[in-house]
Protein: glycogenin glucosyltransferase
Amino acid sequence: MADQAFVTLATNESYARGAMVLGKSLRNHNTTKKLVALVGPHVSEPCQSVLKRIFDEVRVVDVLDSGDTAHLAMMKRPDLGVTFTKLHCWTLTHYSKCVFMDADTLVLSNIDELLEREELSAAPDPGWPDCFNSGVFVFSPSNETYAKLLQHCTEHGSFDGGDQGVLNSFFNTWATADISKHLPFIYNLSSIAIYTYLPAFKQYGGNAKVVHFLGKTKPWSYTFDPKAKQISGSVHEATAHPTFLLDWWTLYSSAVVPLLQEQYGDQPFHSGCVEGESSPFAEALGPQLSSEERKQKWEQGQADYMGMDSFDNIKRKLDTFLK
Structure:
């Protein structure tokens, strides 16, 4: 189906790299669909060039300078700038159906079957399962829907300040109307949800098809030693399962960094790949936290999974308790 596509959005350089990894992961798992990247005007030429090597279509979208209806809506609701940019995906009317995927997602197996679903299909949000998470959703491009979404934005705003609030209030029957529009959680496995229900992750996590690196700390926030296969960064900010983080960095360092190096040439750029410069991720444990501090970290989705809150430690505690 040449008129079906996977669509992502990169508003800046960091998210552009996320989009590159997402695109590569879709290609590696042999998608037969088109790949589209919407990019903000601040994404550099070298990054756009790399995106063009991976995606079938790269389109610059800028709600501030555009002459379209989003520009008028922006005047009334400047707080929703990035949201308006994301809603541009409905203007891709040369496609009959698409799957939107945030640039902080990673595909773990072929997901072309998602295009058999109808608008608006999405997985539940782990924070409030009667809302869907807008990191992965199936939609049908339509100028009419686009206009209605913009009008909805200007009249009602967003209850969470972003696109998820807008889309949930617009497609407000998702929770109750049609179970076939509820994507299984394996199509949008939230990395911060893993530690809130560990037994379920242990039971079903192996079937995951898409992992979503939710939270403030993204994969590209870390550094990586490709030789030692070690990730460095603040463990207490970590919100992702180490295996998935390693998958992301392995793909980025092997398939994306060479393309970036080619485009940047002699110009310096920070790839995030360093050799032997920083301590291994597993050793980057900070000072011991109090029980109250640990509880707060858990509630914020920031479990110290490489240390105190590792699965083995939790299992050991549970086994002791049950005995």
